[in-house]
Each structure stands twice: as C-alpha cells, then as structure tokens.
Amino acid sequence: MSLPRLWTTSLEPAFDPIRAMRREMENAFRAFDQGSPSPSIGAGAPAINVAETKDAVTAELPGVDDKDIKVSLDGNQLVISGEKKAESTKDEKDWHVEERSYGSFYRSMSLPFEPEDGAVEAHFDKGVLHLAIKKPAKAVKTTKTIDIKTGAPPSASPVPNKAAAPGKAA
C-alpha cells in the first residue's frame, strides 16, 4: 500500500488531506440531510415572527394556497397548520435538483393571554399569513403615574407610653 504524495510536479495535482477530509464530511452531511423535510415548510414548522404590533404574528407559507391553511385557537394556544401540495409529479419532468418540499406543516405557540371570541383576524397575502390578535382589556398593561410629594415622609405615629399602673414599680 502506498501513501499519497504531498508534493507535486507541474503535471500532477497535489493531494491535500484537509481538502479530502472536508469533501468527505460534506458528502456525509449531504447524505444525512437527504430525505429530511425542510424546517421551514413541508412536514415541518413555518418560520414565524411575533411582535406586539398590528400584525401580532406573521408566518411565511410560500407556495401554500390559502384554502390549505388552518388557524385555530384553543384557550391561549394558537395553532397554524396545513399542507403544501406538490405542483407536479416526478414522472412529468427530468429532475436534476429537487430542494422544494411538500407535505403538511404545523406550528403551535402559547399566547401570554387568552383571546376573546372574535379577537383573531387572519389575512393571507403573497405567501405570508398575517394574524392580528386583540388583547383582552384585562391583559393590557396600564401605566399608573405616582405623584411625588416634597418634604420628608410623615413619620410613624409614636405609640404613647402607658402610665404605669398604681402600685407597681416601674
């Protein structure tokens, strides 16, 4: 068995063990990732943004038809689910690269409050689901201003000393 040479002539490429190891690792990771669903859609969970704004929750659902999306609320649990359907079958085309994924998706999150009936409004535009969730009045934080008075704070009223009972030594 001969060991690879680490030098080269002008006509022969050098063997780089680091490059070879890197290539093997990339191939291993690629093989591991094949067949696993994309984390963003298709048997996965859509990417979401959550903020305290007009659109409290937005979810990216590219390639999903609005009729294939379901939004539900169970107490304070918000659930976005649905399915991204394949546009064509593999037999119709001579595929070279296939990275787009299809299948069902599911995303669930706990809200810090329980919305009232009719408090969630959903709109779907250009592959993005927008959810506006109105907080109930009891969940809205109110700021109370405290008046500041000048001067020393009032001292605690002293407890008057009780006079010693007659006949007893103090």
TrEMBL record:
Residues 142-170 are annotated as: Disordered. InterPro entries: A-crystallin/Hsp20_dom (IPR002068), HSP20-like_chaperone (IPR008978), Small_HSP (IPR031107). Residues 36-151 form the SHSP domain. Belongs to the small heat shock protein (HSP20) family. This is Hsp20/alpha crystallin family protein. The lineage of its organism: Bacteria, Pseudomonadati, Pseudomonadota, Alphaproteobacteria, Hyphomicrobiales.
